[in-house]
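Subject: sequence -> structure tokens, single chain

Hey, anyone have a minute? Need the predicted structure for the following. Not urgent.
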Amino acid sequence: MLPYSPFDTADQAERLLEAARGGRVVVVGDAMLDTYLSGTVDRISPEAPVPVVRVVAETAAPGGAANVAMGVTALGAECRLVAAVGDDDSAADLIGRLQAAGVGTSDLVSQPGRPTTRKTRIMARHQQMLRVDTEDPGPLSDEVRQRVSRQALEALEWADALVIEDYDKGVIDGSLARDLLARARDRGIPSVIDPKLRHFFEFPGATVFKPNARELAAALGLEKAPRDEATLAPILEGLDCDCLILTLGEEGMLVFEPPAAARLLPPVAREVFDVTGAGDTVTAVLSVALLAGGSIGQAAFLANLAAGVEVSRLGAVPVTAKELIAEFGRTN
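Reply:
Had a minute. Here:
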């Protein structure tokens, strides 16, 4: 039993998620492909003191902003993804998986010669041995950047909610972020920001600003992220955002929505198996709950439940509305 719930009953939470069905979310940011090579280890390489992984299975799934888009559609909302990809096999694989899940891919912009971001995780006995990243984190070409901006602003006119998912892979810059957030405010639709260090303070006017503790500490030049209201309030005021949600990993998340006091939502995972994609899941649930008319407290509560489901299984697997309601019943 969780110590706090903004819902009176499971039916109330279920009605909120049902109201989100058919809602429209535009996700703008860095899309990637997550690949898993799973195998066994039974010897050390004679060439170097490293384990030899004998691969027995290979799986892949959309990651980053693409994973957020998958999470949105798994909850019953419609989604258009605006991102840059290469013209390689990874892009084709990523697009095929997104289309199979019902994510709109017509806003993806290809930049020839630039690799699609791909993270390859080598696993043995359910433990990650190594991660190999294939990427170009530099700025997009001027032509591609302008096309991404046009696609994003056009898609925003269609949407009921905006997500900006920045992984510092070149898609998001301060100009694009400010233009999108200003238009979202003008249209009166909620926005959720998942920032990274390079553009951390360039997201003014968002509904929810959602860094993790490590990112916030790095942005402030501190060893540990602050959790006290006296420190968080000026940050939120400077960003002109409605709410700051600080994700704390195994400690849950901190929700600060002035003038209310900061509230710690404890973790709900039965067992932490793989944290990959948990932050993306939180972002997806927040956007869907807010577009359906839920309060920030309700959206954060459901997002925290979804994160608990996500980390209890291997890889980034979107959490469905049915799973979320089942988790609500288990913990309340």
